[in-house]
């Protein structure tokens, strides 16, 4: 991909030659944002009393990081709570080209720009589906710990407060003028041990804490569909890694998943191999007669 092509797409920026591929924290200086807005509540609001709106976001993945950045850029007092700042979340990590532009992602955080995708059927017939890509198009392969950290750091640069903490529970407002009270354990970068119990009062809460969302439980959001997935990162010999240099694979069929698919996605120095299902957990229980067989 040449520089002329890169310049024609919003948000696609070449890697800085003096910057390491893994030095995500050094990319922010190249980003320019509109001037921050000042959002002040009206004088007639008894709840806010002329101060900025205060919002807490629980969960520091792409949804949480993006929400925090957007709110902070708008002048809202923003807090993002995330327990695992280096979380290697189970995720295939394939992103479409449009996301690179819409999220203004630097090319440095993309491990590989795949242009070949192979779909393997239940009968082991392989079909190449990447041929529809144009010369400048690709499928980005990212590691979630890199992508998530970049988005959180960018939110912080725009004024969001990033809290390394574990969200525990939330007290709902007693009346329309009362705040939400969030209870969490603060770790301040500690890797182990018991966190310090803290509280945070805000005017609104965004739950971006995944399938087992404690925010969803706190507001009694009810049941919802979710997928169960498994993935391993496998480092293979360099001569075999060449095969996946520009190729991603997807497998369909009951031998891989009853209703989902399996994947082999290349990353910086390994392949991410995983599968999943949206079938209810109870339906996946192993029959008593098959338990011994399943252990082998």
Reported CATH architecture of the largest domain: 3-Layer(bba) Sandwich
CATH class of the largest domain: Alpha Beta
Largest sheet, spatial ordering of strands? 10-9-8-2-1-11
Strand content: 25-35%
Query: Biggest β-sheet: count, sense, barrel?
Result: 6 strands, mixed
Radius of gyration from the alpha-carbon trace, in angstroms: 22 Å
Number of H- or I-type helical stretches: 7
Stretches where pLDDT is under 50 for at least 5 consecutive residues are: 1-35, 286-296
Average pLDDT, rounded to a whole number, is 81
Provide keyphrases for this structure.
296 residues, alpha/beta, FAD/NAD(P)-binding domain, 2 domains, 6-stranded mixed β-sheet, 7 helices, disordered N terminus, disordered C terminus, photosynthesis, geranylgeranyl diphosphate reductase activity, Geranylgeranyl_reductase
What does this entry look like structurally?
The protein is α/β, with parallel strands linked by helices and about 300 residues long. The N terminus and C terminus are likely disordered. It is elongated, with a radius of gyration of 22 Å. Helices cover about 15% and strands about 25% of the residues. The strands form 3 sheets. The protein has a 6-stranded mixed beta sheet with strand order 10-9-8-2-1-11. The chain has 2 domains: about 140 residues, FAD/NAD(P)-binding domain; about 90 residues, no CATH class. The protein contains 7 helices and 15 strands. Helix 2 links the parallel strand 1 and strand 2. The termini are far apart.
